[in-house]
Every structure is written in structure tokens, then in C-alpha cells.
Amino acid sequence: MKPEDNQNMTDFFIQGLTDIPQFQFPIFFIFLLSYVIIFIGNITIFLVILHDSHLHTPMYIFLMNISITDIGNTSNVLPKMLNIFLTQHKTISFEGCITQLFLFICLTLTEVLILAAMAYDRYVAICHPLHYFILMSLRYTFILIVASWTISFLDTTGHAVLVSKLSFCESHLIDHVFCDLTTLLKISCSDTFKVEMLTYIEGAIFTVPAFLLTFISYIFIVSSILKIKSSEGRQKTFSTCASHLTCVAVFYGTLICLYMRPTSSYSPKQDKFFALLYIVLIPMLNPVIYTLKNQDVKEALKKLTSKVAN
Fold this sequence. Notes:
Layout: E1 11-14, H1 21-51, H2 58-87, E2 91-93, H3 94-127, H4 132-135, H5 138-164, E3 173-174, H6 181-187, H7 193-226, H8 231-259, H9 268-292, H10 295-309
Parallel strand pairs: 1-3
Antiparallel strand pairs: 1-2
């Protein structure tokens, strides 16, 4: 019996990546390895910053929260994917699907807001260095972090409540790798106007302003860097924000490809591809990008490693 034949079931069926048997185990091990790398990389960043008091500055405290969102988003999606590859058990309960949707939206919006706060932090550090400790005090930093998580939680609760009231009488087959909002709206037989309107309002109030704040901050940052006369000074100043700028470019580039393409170009295969880029690639790259050229983090990691070894 096909999933869509039973209109009274409470479970959803996640299509996943492929049904070809010979591909199941190779893909399983690839994503299992990716999950291990993501978890170890991000938890290491978190512990290194937590352990070293010299890194208890706004930029690194924001980075700790990025690590939390990366671990959370990956852990929200990949374990279920791995279970599907291993057992071919594709069902997910209605409650589990709504929970997965809630966590994905909440953690993604939190990362959007935290990245904007990090961009503002770099703007103040480069463009207004004399006022940095006033404008970016630890108290103000924690206010921004608490506000980001609170806004994301409250906004996502509205999405989860509205989606949970939708009917799925025609199909329970989710042609995706997880319970994504767009896919759920496509298979619902209810009026989705309220959910779509809330999404537009949320984007207008939070996502777009956060993106603009990030974008405008870097316009001023680049402008200030170009005014520095010595090439060594420009390079040194740019290095303080290069990691964040790289992560922002990858993050927004992936999200734009995932959610801001023309409707005519949407396809399940492309949606899965870009979703996996966001869920796997970004959390895997962030620890590398933030530590590869960051001497402070390298030194803190060496100290923590030697302390654990002893």
C-alpha cells in the first residue's frame, strides 16, 4: 500500500535521498562521518572558547552560539536520515515532524540573528575602535544573544502551531530529507494562507533586516579598510573579519539557493541538494574557517589539548 492511499494515518513518510539499495550503505557512512566531524569540530570550538578566559569576548561568545546552532540543526536532521539509510524505516510521527520543523526554523533564524550581531561587532571594532568596549560590552552582548534565541523561539512557535493545525488528507509523503516547511505546505490540503503570511511577516521583520544589517556593516567595514594606507595594515584589519565574512557568504548563499529561487526552478532534487549543503556543509566548514587562520583559537586549543593530555 502506498503512503498516500491511507488518508487517516498520523505518520509522515520521508522520501530521503535514494531508494537504490547499493547506494544506501556508502551514503550512510559518508553522512555518518560528516556528522561525527561536525559534532567534534563544533563541540571543540565551544569547549575551547569556554575554557580560555582570553576568548571571552563578544566575537567568540557569538561563535559559541553559532556552534550550538550548527550542532543542533545537524542533530535535528542527520540522525533520522542515517536511520532511514540503515533500516529503510521512513516513517516519522506527526509530532516528530512538527518538532523537526520547529527546531530547524528556530535554529536557522537564531543563526541569522547571531551572524548579524557578529557583523555589527566587527563593524564597531573596525570603524569605531575607541568606543568598542562601550558599544559592545559583555552585558550588551548577552542581551543580543538572549534576544536572538527568544525571538527565534517565539516566532517558530507560531509556525509550529499553525502547521500542526493543517490537514494532510491527500498525501503524507514528504519528498525531502526532513520535514521542511515548503514541502509540508505543498502536501497540505488545507488553506495555508496564515502560515505563508506569517513566514512573509517574519522575513520582513527579522530575516531581511538582519541580512541588511550584515550587508551594510560590511560595506562600512570594507570602506574603512580601503582607507588604511599601508597594505600590511589593510591585511591585518581584514583578517579580523575574514572568517566571519566567509561564513556569512556561504550561509546566505546556500539559503538563497534553497528558499529564494524562482518558483519555476523548484524541484525535489535541487531542494534536497541545497538543504544538505546547509545542514552538512556549513556546520562542517565553520570550525575550519574560524580556526584555520585564527591564532588565538589555535593557541587556546593547544593549551586545552596539553591540559587534557597531562
